[in-house]
Amino acid sequence: MMMIDEILYGATAPELAARAGKQLSHALANHRPIALYGAGQTGRWVLSHMPDLVTYFLDDTPSKQGQVIDGIPVLSLDEAARRFGSDILVIVCIFSAGHHFPQTKEKLESRFGYEVIHFWNAVLAMASGTPNLFLGPIENELAWRDRYFRLEQKLADDHSRQVLAANLRMRLHADFATNMDSRTDLAFAGSVPENLVYVDGGAFDGDTIASFLSWRSSSFARIVAFEPDSHNFLKLEAFLKSLPGDISGRISTHRKALWKDDKGIRFSAGGGVASAVTSDGEIFVDTVSLSTFSDVTEPMFIKLDVEGVEQQVLIGDEEFIRKKRPILAISVYHNQSDLLDIFEMITRWNLGYNFYLRCHGGDGTDLTLYCIP
Fold first, then answer.
1. 136-162 average pLDDT score
2. 160 and 128, same structural domain?
3. Which of 37, 52, 116, 190 lies in disulfide reach of 105, CB 3.0 to 4.6 Å?
C-alpha cells in the first residue's frame, strides 16, 4: 500500500473542507470572538475572505498594536487575554520559511489557553485558494490522484515518500505538523566530486550558500550566485565578506535573475523572501540563462528558487540540462501544480535522474525536488 493512499482516497472535497473548518464553524455557531494572529500580508489576505467574521488582529509588533488595519483593530496577545480570557479562536496567519505552526500553536495554547488553528483550516472552509503558494483548491488535488501516485512510485527513498505524504496532509487536511529537513543532509546525492560548481539561482542573503559550505566545506571549485533584488544583494555581499578569503575568493555574485534568456525582465523587489520575477514588476533587471555555463567542464549543482518561474527557466534551458546533466535542486512550492508539473517535465526528458523530495522550510515552504544523475 502506498503512503498517500489513505490521504487521497476516502473523502470528497466538500467533506475535507467541512472537516478542516470544523473549529471555525463551531466558533461561529457559539458566537465566539475570532482573531487573526499576524497582521501582515497573509493576515490581510485571510481577512479579505472573511471580512465580517473577524473581531481583531493579534500581532507581536509594537508599532502595529493599537492601529486599525483594513478596518480591524490590532491588539497585543496580552491585551486580547485581558479582554477575552481564553474564550477566543485564534487563526494563525503566518506563512514563511522560518515559521513552524506547531510551535506557535503550542505557545498560544500553553500561555493563553486559546483554541488555535492554521489559516488554511479557515481558507478550506471558505473554499478559496491562495496566490503564489502550493496551497490551492482541494478539487485540484483530488483530480491529480494518479499523478501523485506516479510521483510516489518514482521517488528514490522512503523519506521522500514521507515528505510527499506530509505535504499532501497539509494541502488536504490543514495538518501543518511536518518536520523540516536540513539542507546539509544530502547523503542521498552520493559521492560528489571535489571540483563541483554550485550555481545558486535566487541566493537571497546567502543562506543557501552557507548551507552549501556547511555540506561541502572547501571541497568545491566555485560558486556563482544570482540575486536580482538590490536589498537582498547587499545582504549577500555582506555575508560573503564574513567568509575566509580562500572561500570568498571562489564565489562570484551577480545582481541578475536566472531566466530562460538574456533579454531582461520586469521584477518586483521586496527586499525579502518574496521578491520575484513578474510581468508587472516595478523595475527592469538583467537576466541570464543557464546556457551561460555551457563552457563549464566541471560537474555542476544548480539550485533554482526563483519565486514561481522555475518551470520557465528549466524549459528555456532544456538543451543545456540535457547536455550537462547537473544535480538539480528545484523549489516546487510556489504554485499549486509546480511539484507535479516540474517532476513530469524532467521525467519526459528521460535523463536518468533519481528523484528525492525534501522540505527545508516551516509549514511546507522550501519544498525541494532533487534530481540526482
1. 95
2. no
3. 116
Same domain, 189 and 81: no
Structural domain range at position 126: 5-132
Q: Which of 187, 147, 89, 155 is nearest to 344 (CA)?
A: 147
Please choose, from the candidates 293, 224, 228, 288, the residue with its C-alpha nearest in 3D space to the C-alpha of residue 262. Answer: 288
Instruction: Say whether both 116 and 158 belong to one domain.
Output: no
308 shares a domain with 201: yes
User: Is 341 in the same domain as 200?
Assistant: yes
Q: pLDDT tier at 280 (50, 70, 90 boundaries)?
A: low
Q: What is the CA radius of gyration of the chain?
A: 22
Whether the pLDDT of residue 127 is over 70: the answer is no
> What's the pTM?
0.93
Please say whether the beta carbons of 155 and 161 come within 8 A.
Answer: yes
